[in-house]
Specification:
The chain is 41% helix and 15% strand. By secondary structure, the chain is an alpha/beta fold. The model has no long low-confidence stretch (mean pLDDT 96).
């Protein structure tokens, strides 16, 4: 089974209604990309973006969901709400949520199960800090995050994993090609041990992906696409990354 190629944009806490112009520009420039093109806007924009993207190939995702289906959780959003607003994916366990909100592997796992129950595809994020890389524990750290965060019932159709070294997010720094290759090969093997076969699971790289480095990163074995932060905010930049992945 061949993994889906996915270019996913994470807008984080950026974007007001005026930013929907970027979606129109992206769709106009890339009406039929040879990869999945996905944007994960703030929840406030999801339904509007869904309307703006109607009839296009753009897919939508949330940036987080609660582990419960409903209830007294002021300020939180359920997987069903994201689905209702037009999402088909949800980013879970992003390092900013792990750091800012103390999210553990067990919580990410519970959220991933909630997403699956609603038919959302979780994009489970894992990655080492700079101190962990310097200490030589990268594979140990991401192996343990993968084991603890990914539901065992996942299949290639219901799981995306994003390797995002924490020190590369929003810093302009990226690992070497050899480092990305090492981690992605490790992830493919570790996932196979966990869920049976991981041949078709999309493994994304994330961390300072931009138009100038996308082609080189997409040539790395077992890299099936990217999770993009800053460079996903502008249609021209994200479109270049979509084009690079389409050509890979
Ligand atoms: C991210 O937040 O997932 C990310 C990869 O950000 P950036 O591309 O800005 O490094």
């Amino acid at each position: 089974m061949t993994p889906r190629k996915i270019a996913a944009g994470n807008w984080k806490m950026n974007g007001l209604a005026a930013a929907l112009a970027e979606v129109a520009a992206l769709n106009a420039a890339h009406p039929a990309p040879a990869c999945a093109m996905l944007l994960c806007p703030p929840a406030t924009l999801l339904a509007q973006m869904n309307w703006a993207a109607k009839g296009s190939n753009l897919k939508l995702g949330g940036q987080d969901c609660h582990q419960d289906a409903s209830g007294a959780h002021t300020g939180d959003i359920s997987a069903a709400m994201l689905r209702d607003a037009g999402a088909t994916y949800v980013i879970l366990g992003h390092s900013e949520r792990r750091a800012d909100h103390g999210e553990t592997d067990a919580l990410v796992l519970a959220k991933a199960k909630a997403a699956l129950a609603c038919g959302l595809i979780p994009i489970v994020c894992i990655g080492e800090t700079e101190a962990q890389r310097d200490a030589g524990t990268t594979l140990q750290v991401i192996g343990s995050q993968l084991d603890g965060s990914v539901p065992e019932e996942s299949t290639a159709a219901t799981l995306v994993v994003a390797y995002e070294p924490v020190w590369a997010i929003g810093t302009g720094r990226t690992p070497t090609i050899a480092q990305i290759a090492e981690v992605h090969a490790f992830l493919r093997a570790r996932l196979t041990a966990k869920i049976g076969t991981a041949a078709g699971v999309s493994l994304l790289y994330g961390g300072s992906v931009k138009p100038s480095n996308a082609t080189q990163i997409f040539a790395v074995p077992h890299v099936d696409g990217a999770l993009v932060g800053g460079a996903s905010l502008k249609a021209a930049d994200f479109g270049s990354i979509v084009a690079a992945l389409s050509a890979a």
